[in-house]
């Protein structure tokens, strides 16, 4: 199995400047690899650092030390310390992030929101529209909503638009932050099917799933984040 992402000795601290400079050691010495077609699930209690790890992998947080290397443009690319434009290229071509929340952009239609990751990669508009329609149908977003901006959609509709967008293209690495949270049974199953298809297509998936049944369907392996117990230092 080809390794798609390699994480080595990752440390992340938060310094609370407004609170006597308390330092939270949230990620300590995290190391793991994920291969093509594999889904690794982050396990750990609330506050163990799961979301922090996801945000660090996506380049939102700079770790104190360690390495995050992803297979990008046929070579292992070091994300830690990379320039913002390189991180943007990784996000466009290599690493997708699906959370339960849609970042709504005023006046951009639902169909355009979903198509955007494919257009950014140079897909023809008709091919992108076809895939977007198929995903929106599978996720039970009524066709009458497709030409409207999702700002006024219900929470569940926005979540499903975000999932359609996330699964629009095959990402070499996919970060899934509670993608099935608060979905009904039918749509939850659609998301589990989409995750299965991404694995089949060779994506390396890293996920957070509070839903135990979903976790058990998708996980090939677990990473125990409880060993991470936050320590505090003044
Ligand atoms: N931006 C931040 N600044 C300071 N501390 C933070 C920040 N983000 C997270 N933390 C702290 O890091 C720890 C881990 O938080 P994180 O959100 O990663 O946990 P989690 O495992 O995802 O929890 P949950 O399952 O509740 O979502 C918590 O103690 C939290 O207070």
Helix content: 25-40%
**Poorly predicted spans:** 229-234
Q: Number of DSSP helices? A: 7
What do the pLDDT scores average to?
A: 93
Radius of gyration: 18 Å
Distance between the termini: 44 Å
Which cofactor or ligand species appear? Answer: adenosine-5'-triphosphate
Strand content: 25-35%
How are the strands ordered across the major sheet? 5-4-1-2-10
Strand element count: 10
Given the C-alpha coordinates, what overall shape results? globular
How many strands, which pairing sense, and closed or not: the largest β-sheet?
A: 5 strands, antiparallel
The sequence of SSEs as H and E is EEEHEEHEHHHEHEHEE
SS-based structural class?
A: alpha/beta
Please describe what this structure looks like.
- The protein is of the alpha/beta class and 234 residues long.
- The protein is 33% helix and 28% strand.
- It is built from 7 helices and 10 strands.
- The chain has helices at residues 50-57, 84-93, 110-120, 125-138, 155-166, 185-200, 212-218, and strands spanning 3-16, 22-35, 39-43, 65-72, 75-78, 95-98, 173-177, 204-208, 221-224, 231-233.
- The strands form 2 sheets. Strands 5-4-1-2-10 form a 5-stranded antiparallel β-sheet, covered by helices on one side. A 5-stranded parallel β-sheet has the order 6-7-8-3-9, with helices on both faces.
- Helix 3 packs across helix 4 and helix 3 (110-120) runs parallel beside helix 5.
- The protein is globular.
- The relative contact order is 0.21.
- Residues 229-234 have low confidence and may be disordered.
- Bound molecules: adenosine-5'-triphosphate.
- Adenosine-5'-triphosphate binds next to strand 2 and helix 1.
């Amino acid at each position: 199995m080809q390794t798609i992402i390699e994480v080595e000795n990752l440390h992340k601290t938060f310094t609370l400047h407004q609170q006597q400079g308390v330092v939270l050691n949230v990620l300590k010495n995290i190391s793991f690899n994920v291969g093509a077609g594999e889904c690794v699930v982050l396990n750990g209690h609330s506050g163990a650092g799961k979301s922090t790890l996801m945000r660090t992998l996506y380049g939102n947080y700079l770790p104190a030390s360690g390495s995050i290397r992803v297979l990008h443009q046929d070579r292992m690319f070091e994300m830690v310390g990379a320039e913002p434009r390189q991180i943007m290229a990784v996000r466009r071509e290599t690493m997708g992030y699906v959370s339960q929340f849609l970042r709504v952009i005023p006046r951009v239609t639902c169909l355009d929101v979903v198509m955007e990751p494919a257009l950014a990669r140079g897909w023809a508009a008709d091919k992108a529209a076809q895939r977007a329609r198929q995903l929106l149908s599978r996720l039970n977003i009524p066709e009458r909503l497709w030409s409207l901006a999702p700002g006024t959609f219900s929470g569940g509709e926005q979540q499903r638009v975000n999932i359609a967008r996330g699964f629009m293209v095959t990402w070499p690495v996919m970060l899934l932050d509670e993608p099935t949270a608060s979905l009904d049974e039918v749509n939850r199953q659609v998301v589990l099917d989409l995750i299965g298809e991404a694995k089949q297509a060779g994506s390396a998936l890293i996920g957070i799933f509070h839903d135990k049944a979903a976790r058990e369907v998708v996980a090939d392996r677990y990473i125990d984040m409880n060993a991470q117990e936050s320590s505090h230092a003044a």
